[in-house]
Amino acid sequence: MKTNALCFAALTFFLALPCWMNAQQEDVPEPVFLNFSVQPPYVPTYHGRDPFKPLNWVVNQPQISIAELKYYGIVDVGSQPIALFGWRADPSKEYTLKNRKLYNDAGLPVDGVVGDITDSQVILIQGDQKIAYSRK
Length: 136
Known about the structure:
The chain is of the alpha+beta class and 136 residues long. The protein has one helix spanning 2-25; strands at residues 69-77, 80-87, 94-98, 101-103, 109-117, 121-126, 129-134. A hairpin with a 2-residue loop joins strand 6 and strand 7 (129-134).
């Protein structure tokens, strides 16, 4: 009786094994992943002030003109030249020209001012105004 039960269990296992293996290997597409599209994140459009900045957030950086800058010279940092400027109205304010952008003493780029450092001169451009300094 034990042998018959054991043979019956083994026969059932071997007969059910192919069905179980096919059920495990079958790839069934799910309707959720058909035609799945990735959309960019939502970028809100708003008018007025930035709602994510506090109300008392104001940049106290004075607006400067490139005519008010005093050219000091060039410093080579590695292989990159950096032009040094000072503000004539307040000599403690320093500006640097690197990577074609003018940066204030806090390291923030000055809006509307671009420039270039060539082998013979340093050029600052702000709107229609262009000033070239001789590179010493």
